Amino acid sequence: MDIVNAYAELGSYRGAAALCGTSHKTVKRIVERRQRSGGEQAGGRLPRPRTTDGVRMLITERVQATDGRITAKRLLPVAQAAGYAGSARSLRRAVAEAKAVWRRQRRTYRPWVPVPGEHLVIDWGTERGLHLFCAVLPWSRYRFVRIAADERRETTLRLLTECFEEIGGVPAVVLADRMGCLRAGTVANVVVPHPTYIEVAAHYGFRPDFCEARDPESKGVVEALVGYVQTDLVIPAGGWESLAAANEAARAWCAEVNGRAHSEIAAIPAERLATERGVLRPLPSLRGPLRQGEARKVDKLNTIRFGAARYSVPRALVGETVLVRAHEGAVIIEQHGHEVTRHRPVAPGEVSLHDAHYGGPAKRPARAVRPRSTAEVAFLALGPTAERFLRAAAAAGTGRLSAELEAIVALEAAWGRSTLLPALERAVTFHRFTAADVRAILDAGPGVPTPTPPGSGLAVAHLPTVPTRELSAYALEARS
Questions:
Q1: Model pTM score
Q2: d(Cα 281, Cα 294) in Å, to the nearest integer?
Q3: In a domain? residue 209
Q4: Does 299 lie in the same domain as 271?
Q5: For residue 18, what are the domain limits?
């Protein structure tokens, strides 16, 4: 301490060494050792580096993720892939130390004692592209499962009210995780429910509650149900043809599991629900349906936009407002409570049209011909054949087409229209678009063959039957 104090006062290794009667190297070594140790005794030993220091964060993360259950044997290949070059014994020691720290810091659980009619816990799960809405009454363990195509706010509230209808009452609290469809925001870790959710809660008489962020353990009763539905219902089924069939299977599955004794409560959930229903809040007498879908205004193209795609509606609804919703694999468009039309969902940016909304199938766009010069008027007066000739000649890039049309019109005076029109038809067939080509066809006369596609084979019936002999009958006789 004398050396350290002398160096602190003088600020020089040599000055402190002269004052304390030692060398400046000793002063430097003691001062640097004290600085590395964070101000501890200069003579204290510095901690020795360990081979597990490079993977200490990895060990801590894996111990926390597995709730302290992972073993050093399982963690050794992962640590070696992360650059660990030490022995298995050193890793076992480091894992044991991390587990000891985790046990001291691990949260303490208190069993939840549910009260009849107090809570309903809801959650969404996904499996094989399907969205699973799960709800459970913690006291009776009554389970409610439905399958939907999305997790929108309207879908969630519709299924929640359907759950109330099935259980025959309303609980005091509906507990959910922090679903984006049910919250309007979060302020200081306090969830602000969405106004629509508040309206539904006020109408049915329950209090919306949200669990802690990223804490599925606070609602483990419904998390277990989601996993049960995935492994026992969705995966064994292998898929359904439609959402209606999926929901029928979900109802049958719920009836089966609710009619079977639950291992936790040693009772049948359906029978416990009959008891719990007596303390549930009654359903409101006026339960109008929720707004089924999003409001959209029909544009001048007879379409509405939904999910970044366009869907057609009848012409009579242009300028009016309709309701659009996605239900069981279809986009349904309604007005005044009546279905107007439905479409198959299409990808964003695509268009789904019904020909009936536009008076029939789509017609191929064509530019109308508008003759201007005298030669054009005279040529197009020949009829549809002349128009086909003109379009084909223009598409082929015929040079000086106006002069060629004028020369073809002059041929009518010598050959007549009845002869000129078949010549134009033949010219279009063989892609010959000059006046010289048409004149050559006229000079060839009607004897020129006209190619036609091959017809069907000749069917010959009622032919006489000719007796046949074996090939051995034609063999030469063997010579003796």
A1: 0.52
A2: 31
A3: yes
A4: no
A5: 2-36
